[in-house]
Structures are given as structure tokens and as C-alpha cells.
Amino acid sequence: MEENLLKIFKLVDKLNEKQDKVFAQICYEADDNKKLEISIRSKEDYKYIEKCEIHLTKNGLIKWNNIVELLESYVRGVSLE
């Protein structure tokens, strides 16, 4: 899990540096739910474009590759028309 989180952190930093239309936001709640939210938002009006909510429980079903692929697609380029 740590390797995937590190990759996600690096991608959201890269997204902010490379894109002038969107940025990523990460929020984590360390309560009983252990909820991680990753959002892609517009830099112009801060609207949510994409949002992933993950519960990091022992038996949680997480598709890390899907999240990484989503972020990579935004890093490569995005059109907000």
C-alpha cells in the first residue's frame, strides 16, 4: 500500500506542475473509517472533475492501478471543454 500511495503523491505533484487547468487534492481521515479521498479539480473555478473515495480497511477492495491510471491520464493532458 505504501508504494502505491507514494506513487499517487508523486503523480498529484506532477499534475499540479504540468497542468494549468486542473490540480489534485488529497484528504485523509484517520478515524475508524480510514477514508482517503483523491480529487481532480479545476484551477479556474475549483469545481470537482473526478473524485475517488477509498476506505483503507483490512478487507477493503482497492484498485490502486485504476487510480494511478486516472492520474497519469490527467498528467499527460486534459481538455476541459
Question: How would you describe this structure in keywords?
Answer:
alpha+beta; 2 helices; 37% helix; three-stranded antiparallel beta sheet; 81 residues
The count of β-strands is: 3
- Report, as a whole number of angstroms, the end-to-end distance: 35 Å
| Main sheet: strand order | 1-2-3
Average pLDDT value?
Answer: 84
Sequence stretches where pLDDT stays below 50 over 5 or more residues:
none
User: What's the tally of helices?
Assistant: 2
What is the number of domains? 1
Descriptive account of the structure:
By secondary structure, the protein is of the alpha+beta class. It has two helices and three strands, in the order αβββα. The chain has helices spanning 2-18, 64-76, and strands at residues 22-29, 35-42, 48-55. A hairpin with a 5-residue loop joins strand 2 (35-42) and strand 3 (48-55). It starts with a helix and ends in a 5-residue tail after the last helix.
List the helices and strands and how they pair.
Elements: H1 2-18, E1 22-29, E2 35-42, E3 48-55, H2 64-76
Antiparallel strand pairs: 1-2, 2-3
Short account of what is shown:
The chain has two helices and three strands. It is an alpha+beta fold. It has one domain.
